[in-house]
Write a structure and sequence with these properties.
DNA polymerase, domain 1, Rossmann fold, 10 helices
Length: about 230
């Protein structure tokens, strides 16, 4: 193990449990907006469809093919029309309600706080995220994550999105450190792992679902639970 001095974390899907928090939010919206009254889909179908659509839209956003406005405005339209509603039947305000409610959820992955408590005295801890600035700070504050991190780098603030190596280089410049002294931990093989590699930073692929994705080239390290970091670092 190299003598790392600084650790970069992704936020969503790595520390903040996006899927659990999003699922809770969508179940609330399903009832609050009376979606059952259309008689075309149930709550589980709504959640699964949204998850699929949102994943595709975020992939487009990360690749620079759509902007934040289009992502936010289209995800519920695409979800609900994909489930059989007409465009005019999509409830007004449902996207805004999601954006307001979801970031207030506080679920994090198992061992998040134990690991951060262990790492904080030993390393400089920082966040690098493609998530939108206006909600990432709400998530971190509500989940009591903010105080662990010295720098919070968002793609909006620096102008580059992961996997563009320039967002990592921006982070390195902010903390005045060399790539060899840093480690990036994230769940996304393209954005987090390949992006960090392009910037010369070692990587930890966080894979809690133990997916069998082909890892080529392999990340520096591969874990299934955050608790594994304590044995590594």
């Amino acid at each position: 193990m190299k003598p790392y001095k600084h650790i970069f974390f992704d936020l969503d899907h790595t520390l903040w449990d996006f899927e659990k928090n999003s699922e809770e939010t969508l179940y609330t919206l399903f009832h609050e907006f009376g979606l059952a009254e259309f008689g075309k889909f149930d709550c589980d179908s709504f959640y699964k469809k949204y998850k699929f659509v949102n994943y595709l839209l975020w992939d487009l956003y990360n690749k620079g093919k759509i902007d934040q406005k289009e992502l936010r405005e289209s995800r519920f339209v695409k979800t609900l029309t994909g489930l059989g509603l007409e465009p005019h039947q999509v409830p007004t305000g449902i996207s805004e309600a999601y954006t307001d409610l979801c970031p207030q959820k506080t679920a994090v992955f198992p061992y998040t706080f134990e690991v951060l408590d262990y790492l904080k005295p030993k390393y400089g801890l920082h966040i690098i995220t493609n998530g939108f600035k206006d909600v990432q700070y709400i998530k971190m504050n509500g989940s009591k994550l903010t105080d662990y991190f010295k720098e919070i780098i968002t793609s909006e603030c620096c102008g580059y999105k992961k996997p563009d190596k320039r967002i990592f280089e921006h982070a390195l410049d902010r903390i005045k450190v060399r790539p060899v002294e840093c480690l990036m931990i994230g769940d996304n093989l393209e954005c987090d792992i390949d992006g960090a590699r392009l910037a010369g930073i070692d990587q930890v692929f966080f894979n809690p679902e133990k997916s069998k994705s082909k890892l080529s080239p392999k990340p520096t390290y591969h874990i299934h639970c955050l608790s594994e970091l304590q044995a590594m670092l």
